[in-house]
Amino acid sequence: MKIALLSNINQSQLFNALSKSHEVYQPDGYGAWMTELLATPAESGLMRSGASLAFIILDGEELLHGLIDFRSKLDALDRAVACLADCASRCPTLGFFISNIDIPQNRIQPVRAQREEYRLESYWNDAISRACNDYKNIFPLDLKNLISELGRRSFYSEKMWYLAGAKYSISGSNSLASLVTKLVKAYIGIKKKVIVLDCDNTLWGGVLGEDGLEGIELSNNKEGARYKDFQRRLKELRETGVILTLASKNNLADVLEALERHPDMALRRADFALMEVHWEEKSDSLRRIAKKLNIGLDAIVFVDDSAVERGRVEAALPEVAVAPFPPDSAQLPHLATQIFEEHFYTLDCTLEDLQKTRMYLEGAQRDTARATAPSLEEFLRSLGTTIRIGALRQSDVVRAAQLTQKTNQFNVTTRRYTEADFFHMMHSAEKTILIGGVSDRFGDSGKTVLLVLSKMSATHFHIDTFLMSCRVMGRRVEDAVIQHVAKLLSAQGATLLTAEFIPSTKNQAVDSLFDRLGFTLVSMDEEMIKNYEADVSVIAYQNTPRFCFVETTDD
Amino acid sequence: MTTERLLIEIAAEVFGVEPTKIHLDMPRSGVSEWDSFAHVALVTVLEERTDIVIPIEHIADINTLRQFLDFRRPK
Q: What ipTM, to 2 d.p.?
């Protein structure tokens, strides 16, 4: 993904550091940032560069350089925000990360004199917050937090500034490059799914089996609080959609008792989707967790205080990300933040993210029902599955993009789209996007079905994308969805429906989906890409057993 | 690690080359990567990571890497 870097100061080191792993566009000359944003598409280097994401890094002091009175400083900030918001609204397919500002308190003044730097920073931050709310393609970049963490002494370099016109030290620029890289990953949606946690000396101090419930270190105040704070961070992590699991060499009954009865436990049984608590090898636990959750080992982060256990997992399962464990356990709460930024960084939270764990537990109940039902048909009929599907709305765009980025198994073409792509497609007469949710007697899956249809002519439609979250597989939802789509298209006068299957390393499950749904295979090329076609009315009215009821969400 | 060793590593990092290509006596004019930005970068990173401190007035006089060693802070 090509990114653009705009700034009102020299960012040579940031540019160099980012160029090692990204394609970066930078306008010629510093101070050109505003011109680039205000320029027309024909003249703007930014718009012609092909960048998908623009990082606007602004230095507070330089933004207000030469201005004396407070009012004119506020005006300068207003002008800058207006310029950014205007550009963002004219380029809805471009993402903008806008930094908050840091204004070092250099001016000498008496202690009681009011400091205007804080007021100016707040004024800017409020304006950027409003812009993030008003525009879906504007995001905040917390530069001030980065500078605070590193300290101004380390982040800024006087020699760099006076000699090279560059404000940040080399290490400051490098840490900013690191943040930008994490934000790009978060924008694309690259992140892991599960964290596997040890218990003893990880979630609490001491060994539960030896110290007992009263003897473990876990409390609201003083030393035991470091573990409670770590648990609090993990709970927040879960609320962003990360699945928490346990892998601990302990007696299950002891751990369950601790989770239920310890007064200072911030995490409880319901916070964990799976618990592998026994005396077997942790790498086997990890393999089982991956299998049960239907994810790759590369979607897992492993946290354990024991260097021996970490070493074993690293050797046995190289795809698993093993988190470094701080030698000083007072740093544990910071570890949670580091892990979040490194592996689970996310820009927004969808409803589905918040409910991941609950949905996993409902899925487990559904699996039990399937295993104990007299036949598959009996099981499917007993579910009472209802699919609610309709045209994509603005409020669904974040979820739709997430689905295209993360769905690998039930995905016939594996086309990845960003929120900006969906925004574009929603406004195109040639594209129809449908999104749907599935519910049954065990619970609601949230929005888990997505179709993108391309109108090839008045009578010919093509399925560009058809995907479903793996948790709704195995209930014949796809049959009902395709039949519903065919009925919709038939009502619009379509007669021909074509589709493709593009094989990937992960979608073998849907290799013959279209064959099973009644499409005819037209051709297959050397790369095993299959082309299908079908008569719309045949698909719409075919007489196959129906297990799902379909409702439209359009009014 | 000795200051010399650190100096070679830091120069390699700043110039983006292998440490084996760094020689303490090579003149600045003979190294294409040693432009004015790299020069300031060398100064600031050395000050951050070693016992070297260079007053701003002397920076322009430095022509070889070995000259940086003259600015080691006395113990």
A: 0.90
